[in-house]
């Protein structure tokens, strides 16, 4: 009985394999959507003439892009299959710039939409690399894939070609401001400071400055501080507000240090006490409490100015992040009584239990506000009309 079942399955598989593939769909895959981003072509592109036009547009926008050659390769494959008697159609499908799941979903939707009008029983995949070929298992679930063609550009292997490529990138580093700032500007500053230090004889001090500059440059580039600041300082209403409030907030926060020292009792600031070192001033909890109490209002105003600028900026742009910004301001205000009570505990030697009421009040306000704001966020995200 088991042998009969196996023979039945084998016969079904053989029958399926013997089915002639007469209608083939040639699919050119552009997973990162260069054809859409660079040439402005909407996909799927269906038909020989439409694919030629798309390839020409992409080649004119970026002659070095391999996807244009892949499209021409797909058209040639299409013509070869036509000449051999197959009923064939050629298409170009594309994903999204960031690739990933969204790109694969978009590609499979486009393939399915073409199969509604051209019912193919086989597909030929044309790509320019392994990244585009990663969608093969997905397309395989929709239409059987009979062949995969990779378009590899034939380039010169001579030494002259290598020098030409190297010269092109060297020219990019020298003349493109996006790269020259880091690859030329930073070494130039270091060499200039090093030369001045060697002439003046301050070699050790200059070395410390060079290491600090190099470390700062690496940190700025590693955490995209320069790009973040460029986005914040854009000449738009939102950008100008952000820049103003950040500078103002940092200035007020720094002023809190002076305010904290001025709040310390005058006897503590005696020159003899200061002579023993500023850190010793904070060894006394009363002095520490006076410093925090004096610095707290200006510090909170500085942080509030920065948070308020972010809130106004997102509100002008209509971003949903303004809901989080509002919650951030509420938390800042709610925490203030607890921190202020902590300073009273240090200065007046009060009981630690006096911190419980402001803490519970701040926690309740934060939880109620968070619940209300995130319910509002879900309504906005769902497209519902908000009641005032």
Overview features:
388 residues; alpha/beta; Leucine Aminopeptidase, subunit E, domain 1; 5-stranded mixed beta sheet; 17 helices; elongated; disordered C terminus
Going across the biggest sheet, name each strand in turn: 2-3-1-4-5
Secondary-structure element series: HEHEHHEHEHHEHHHHHHHHHH
Number of H/I helices: 17
Globally, the shape reads elongated
Number of domains: 3
Q: How helix-rich are the residues, as a percent range?
A: 55-70%
Radius of gyration in whole Å, from Cα?
Answer: 34 Å
Mean pLDDT: 78
Structural class: alpha/beta
Report on the structure:
- This protein has 388 residues and is of the alpha/beta class.
- The protein folds into three domains: 20-150, Leucine Aminopeptidase, subunit E, domain 1 (3-Layer(aba) Sandwich), CATH 3.40.220; 159-223, no CATH class; 230-369, no CATH class.
- The protein is built from 17 helices and five strands.
- A five-stranded mixed beta sheet has the order 2-3-1-4-5, sandwiched between helices.
- Helix 12 (237-263) runs antiparallel to helix 15.
- The chain is elongated, with a radius of gyration of 34 Å.
- It starts with a helix and ends in a 7-residue tail after the last helix.
- The relative contact order is 0.06.
Write the layout of secondary structure elements.
Blueprint: H1 2-17, E1 23-30, H2 34-37, E2 45-46, H3 48-61, H4 66-83, E3 87-94, H5 100-117, E4 122-127, H6 130-133, H7 136-140, E5 145-150, H8 159-175, H9 177-200, H10 203-222, H11 225-232, H12 237-263, H13 271-275, H14 278-281, H15 285-317, H16 321-348, H17 356-381
Parallel strand pairs: 1-3, 1-4, 4-5
Antiparallel strand pairs: 2-3
Helix pairs in contact: 3-4, 8-9, 9-10, 12-15, 15-16, 16-17
């Amino acid at each position: 009985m088991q042998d009969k079942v196996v023979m039945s399955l084998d016969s079904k598989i053989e029958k399926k394999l013997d089915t002639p593939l007469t209608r083939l769909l040639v699919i050119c895959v552009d997973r990162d959507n260069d054809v859409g981003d660079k040439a402005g072509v909407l996909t799927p592109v269906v038909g020989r003439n439409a694919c030629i036009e798309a390839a020409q547009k992409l080649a004119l926008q970026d002659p070095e892009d391999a996807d244009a050659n892949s499209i021409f390769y797909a058209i040639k494959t299409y013509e070869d299959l036509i000449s051999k008697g197959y009923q064939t159609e050629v298409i170009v499908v594309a994903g999204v710039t960031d690739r990933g799941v969204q790109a694969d979903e978009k590609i499979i939707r486009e393939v399915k939409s073409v199969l509604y009008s051209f019912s193919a029983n086989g597909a030929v995949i044309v790509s320019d690399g392994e990244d585009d070929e990663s969608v093969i298992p997905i397309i395989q679930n929709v239409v059987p894939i009979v062949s995969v063609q990779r378009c590899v550009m034939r380039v010169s292997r001579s030494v002259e070609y290598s020098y030409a490529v190297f010269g092109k990138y060297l020219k990019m580093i020298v003349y493109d401001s996006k790269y020259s700032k880091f690859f030329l500007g930073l070494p130039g500053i270091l060499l200039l400071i090093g030369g001045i230090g060697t002439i003046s004889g301050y070699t050790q001090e200059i070395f410390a400055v060079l290491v600090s500059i190099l470390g700062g440059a690496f940190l700025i580039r590693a955490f995209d501080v320069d790009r973040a600041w460029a986005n914040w300082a854009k000449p738009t209403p939102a950008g100008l507000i952000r820049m103003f409030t950040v500078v103002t907030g940092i200035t007020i926060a720094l002023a809190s240090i002076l305010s904290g020292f001025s709040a310390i009792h005058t006897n503590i600031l005696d020159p003899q006490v200061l002579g023993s070192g500023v850190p010793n001033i904070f060894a006394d909890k009363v002095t520490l409490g006076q410093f925090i109490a004096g610095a707290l209002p200006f510090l909170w105003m500085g942080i509030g100015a920065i948070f308020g600028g972010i809130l106004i900026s997102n509100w002008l742009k209509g971003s949903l992040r303004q809901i989080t910004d509002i919650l951030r301001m509420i938390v800042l205000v709610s925490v203030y009584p607890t921190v202020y009570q902590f300073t009273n505990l240090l200065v007046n030697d009060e009981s630690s239990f006096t911190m419980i009421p402001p803490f519970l009040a701040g926690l309740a306000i934060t939880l109620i506000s968070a619940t209300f704001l995130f319910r509002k966020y879900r309504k906005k995200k769902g497209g519902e009309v908000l009641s005032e």
